[in-house]
Amino acid sequence: MLDTQTKEIVKSTIRALKQYGEDITKVFYRELFSRYPQVQGMFDMEKQKNGKQPKALAMAILNAANNIDNLEKSRAFVENIGKTHVRLNVAPEHYPLVGECLLVAIKEVLGEAASDEVIEAWGKAYGEIAEFYIKVEEKIYQARK
Questions:
Q1: Residue in 20, 31, 95, 133 annotated catalytic
Q2: What's the CATH code of the domain at 127?
Q3: Per-residue pLDDT tens over the stretch 60-113
Q4: Which domain holds residue 135?
C-alpha cells in the first residue's frame, strides 16, 4: 500500500503529465530501446513512428496517476491493455525495465520539477501500478490455458 504522501506527490504531477506526457513517453521509448534492445520486437514500430504508442502510454500513465488512490477504478482500462500485453508475451520481468526507463524519462523531461521526492514517489507508485498490471495479466494468461 502506498502512503498518503506518496499518493499526493503522484497526484501533484498530473498537470505536468497532461502537458508533457507524450514528451516523457518519447524519451521513455528512446531509453527502453537503447538500454534493452531485446524488447523492441514486442512493439509495433509503425505505432512508434506515427506517435500512437507514445500517446497510448501517456494516457496509461495519466490514468494510473488519476486513480492512484484506488487502482481498482482503472481495472477495465488495464484489462484492455493487458490483453495486448498477453498477446505480446509481456512477462513480470519486463516491468522493472519499464519502471527504470520511465523514471529516467520523467527526470529528463520535467527537469527540476522532478525532484528526488517526486522520482522516489513515482518509483514507489510504479511498483504498485506494475503489480496491479501483472495480477490482471496473470488472470488473462490463466484464462487462455
A1: 95
A2: 1.10.490.10
A3: 999 999 999 999 999 999 999 999 999 999 999 999 999 999 999 999 999 999
A4: 4-144
Q: Radius of gyration over alpha carbons of the chain, in Å?
A: 15
Q: What is the pLDDT of residues 18-47, one digit of tens each?
A: 999 999 999 999 999 999 999 999 998 899
Q: Reply yes or no on whether 20 is catalytic.
A: no
Report the number of distinct structural domains present in the chain.
Answer: 1
Catalytic residue among 20, 126, 133, 137: 137
| Annotated catalytic residue 137 | yes
